[in-house]
Amino acid sequence: MALLNFRKQAPAPTASSADLEALLQGYSIEVMPRTAEKVEDFRHYLPAGTRVYIAHIDGTPIEDMVATAARIRAEGFEPMPHFAARSIPDAATLADWIARYQGEADVREGLILAGGIAEPRGAYHSSMQLLETGLFDRAGFTRLHVAGHPEGNRDIDVTGDAGVMEALRWKQDFSERTDAQMAMATQFAFEAGPVIAWAERLQAEGITLPIHLGIAGPGKLQTLIKFAIACGVGNSLQVLQKRAKDVTKLLMPFEPDEILAELATYKAAHPDSLIESIHFFPLGGIKANARWAIANGGAATAPVNPISESE
């Protein structure tokens, strides 16, 4: 029987604890109504005031979305629901959703994006169309986030990224016309180098929108590969597939140590980088993600009343 040849691995990148704490300070996390139901109390897991995005999967009743936002607000966090253009049939529906969120959950922030369905439900197919309605400004939203695509967006550009860049320039211009603070929330990534290069390119081309970089939280490798395929993050998928070929790592849960260490070191050396914050996609579960952040960010990312590991 042949012996497996385990090659010596290069040491994982390291960052100072202070640099990692600084990067994770003020991180955000994403939930859906059905995943939020599995968390008995967000105050056991998240630092007070954490921004919690609420993903609106097409077909989710608006009542469930608003109830989730109200609960998040009541527990001391900042709800940021998704407004997916292709799932909104008309301006009246958009105005109604905004009114419900504000009336029941005091929502002041929103992630405005096109949405993942191929055929729009009505008048809107892009985030720009939603922003152009003026409804968010008139409702007094203080923060509006838009989608960022370090690996491109095949809904806009089959090859290259000319369309994505044109849309970004439009959003940059809009950010200068609105009173709301704006930023980009990106797809999740598993490799620091390409993301850093993308951020530097945007900055060189005059884009100043801060980047809230999507990072997959700890989870099973097979789960992350499934989500990477579904979300179309091709370069990230290659990183995961390479990891899956290493039998020493195949059965171990993925953790975002390496990419965050590289990003923390880079951000410390380049404080003016557009990379402003980390946004976690808790693909392995909200509790696991929050515990990982506490363990790796120290006291700066700890909740006031953490729950014990046995609970």
Topology:
Blueprint: H1 17-24, E1 28-31, H2 33-36, E2 51-54, H3 62-74, E3 78-84, H4 91-105, E4 109-113, H5 127-132, H6 135-138, E5 143-148, H7 162-175, E6 181-189, H8 192-204, E7 211-216, H9 221-231, H10 234-244, H11 257-269, E8 275-281, H12 286-297
Helix pairs in contact: 1-11, 3-4, 9-10
Number of beta-strand segments: 8
Mean pLDDT: 86
How large is the share of residues in beta strands?
15-25%
The amount of helix comes to 25-40%
Shape: globular
Calculate Rg over CA atoms: 20 Å
**Residue runs with pLDDT of under 50 for 5 or more positions:** 1-12
Fill in the CATH topology. TIM Barrel
CATH architecture: Alpha-Beta Barrel
**H-E order:** HEHEHEHEHHEHEHEHHHEH
Distance linking N and C termini: 45 Å
The biggest beta sheet reads: 8 strands, parallel, barrel
Tell me the strand order in the biggest sheet: 1-2-3-4-5-6-7-8
**Class computed from helices, strands and strand pairing:** alpha/beta
User: Structurally, how many domains make up the residues?
Assistant: 1
Q: What is the helix tally?
A: 12
Briefly, what CATH class?
A: Alpha Beta
Protein name: Methylenetetrahydrofolate reductase
Organism: Gymnodinialimonas ceratoperidinii
